[in-house]
């Protein structure tokens, strides 16, 4: 069983998630957030130390404060951002269905994306706050600086904000390369090679 850095009930109490939401759905998103957001921020050494202390019920005061004041707010907002779509749709045998209620109207996908982006902005703020705290207290958290050197070791990631990549080349073409007429005689062929 996975070790959670925040309980489902505490997450519900401190977020906009209704108490009637199935803990199973929330647990899956908490685990995803811990794997994809918290582990890379803390690095493998500190992450594993906190995880082991939670499992043994021996969390130090220092790590308890780190968990309650910095890590858990990050988890709450990333769960809100990453859980928006999975909490709306249900995967069934024959298709993906949108959950519905008699007393409410479901949001459309565009609205869900807007809501998720709003929560993502908050998550990135709290992520930056956690990173700044760890950077300011590197001597108190020696495993933050020394996460280990195994093949699967993650070294702390120190950037909180995530951006996409714009590949809209037409915007950046000189006006001489932009053509409104798409006939073959006036067509400009662009060949781009990307190494991703």
Could you give a short description of this structure?
By secondary structure, the chain is mostly helical. The chain has helices spanning 8-13, 23-56, 61-83, 109-136, 142-145; strands spanning 89-91, 96-98.
Account of the protein in words:
The protein is mainly alpha-helical and 196 residues long. The chain has one domain. The chain has five helices and two strands, in the order H-H-H-E-E-H-H. Strands 1-2 form a two-stranded antiparallel ribbon. A hairpin with a 4-residue loop joins strand 1 and strand 2. Helix 2 runs antiparallel to helix 3 and helix 3 packs antiparallel against helix 4. The protein starts with 7 loop residues before the first helix and ends in a 51-residue tail after the last helix. About 3% of the residues have low confidence.
Number of domains: 1
Q: Order the strands across the largest sheet as they lie in space.
A: 1-2
Low-confidence runs: 175-179
Could you spell the SSE succession in H and E letters? HHHEEHH
Give the count of helical stretches. Answer: 5
Q: What is the straight-line distance between the termini? A: 36 Å
| Helical proportion, percent range | 40-55%
> How would you classify the helix and strand content by structural class?
mainly alpha
Rg on CA atoms, Å: 22 Å
- Indicate the proportion of strand residues: under 5%
Q: Give the overall shape, derived from the CA principal axes.
A: elongated
Taking all residues together, what is the mean pLDDT? Answer: 83
Chain-wise SSE layout:
Layout: H1 8-13, H2 23-56, H3 61-83, E1 89-91, E2 96-98, H4 109-136, H5 142-145
Antiparallel strand pairs: 1-2
């Amino acid at each position: 069983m996975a070790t959670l850095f925040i309980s489902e009930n505490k997450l519900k109490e401190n977020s906009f998630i209704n108490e009637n939401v199935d803990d199973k759905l929330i647990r899956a998103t908490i685990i995803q957030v811990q794997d994809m957001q918290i582990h890379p921020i803390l690095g493998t050494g500190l992450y594993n130390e906190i995880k082991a202390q939670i499992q043994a019920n021996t969390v130090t005061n220092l790590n308890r404060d780190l968990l309650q004041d910095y890590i858990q707010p990050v988890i709450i907002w990333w769960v809100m951002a990453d859980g928006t779509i999975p909490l709306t749709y249900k995967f069934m045998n024959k298709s993906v269905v949108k959950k519905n209620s008699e007393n409410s109207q479901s949001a459309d996908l565009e609205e869900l994306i807007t809501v998720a982006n709003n929560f993502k902005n908050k998550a990135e703020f709290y992520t930056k706050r956690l990173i700044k705290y760890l950077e300011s207290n590197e001597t108190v958290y020696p495993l933050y600086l020394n996460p280990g050197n195994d093949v699967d070791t993650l070294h702390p990631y120190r950037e909180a904000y995530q951006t996409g990549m714009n590949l809209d080349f037409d915007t950046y073409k000189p006006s001489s390369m932009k053509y409104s007429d798409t006939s073959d005689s006036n067509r400009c062929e662009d060949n781009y090679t990307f190494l991703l």
